[in-house]
Amino acid sequence: MINILSPLLISCSVFTLLSGVLVYIIYNLYRKNTIYENWSEGVYEKLNKLQSDIKQIDDKKIFESDDEVGAVFTELSETIQEFDHGIKSNKKE
Question: Which of these, 15, 36, 43, 44, is most buried using a 10 Å CB contact count?
């Protein structure tokens, strides 16, 4: 009787231990995913605010027409738009 229960007891113990480890791993990954998801939403909101602030600052197109300031402003706007495009494409997935 002891010989029959011993392999069953060992396999149930291993299964229980393995299940516990897997549950912990899944919970930990879920928690990290939630943190990164909240962070990316915050970055997206800040980026939208930055984009609208830049448009509001240059609503009369003064910075775009200036020489050196216009070049820096254009580079900054293009960088923000590229970053914004990358976030929007990731958000759709």
Answer: 44
Angle of the 2-57 helix axis to the 68-92 helix axis, nearest 10: 150
Say if 18 falls within a structural domain.
no
Please give the tally of structural domains in the chain. 1
**Dist. CA 86–CA 52, nearest whole Å:** 17
DSSP annotation of 66 reads: S
| Locus of tokens 């879920």 | 30
Over residues 38-48, the pLDDT tens digits come to 998 888 888 88
| pLDDT one-digit tens code per residue, 82-93 | 877 766 665 555
In a domain, 1, yes or no: no
For 55, the domain range is 28-92
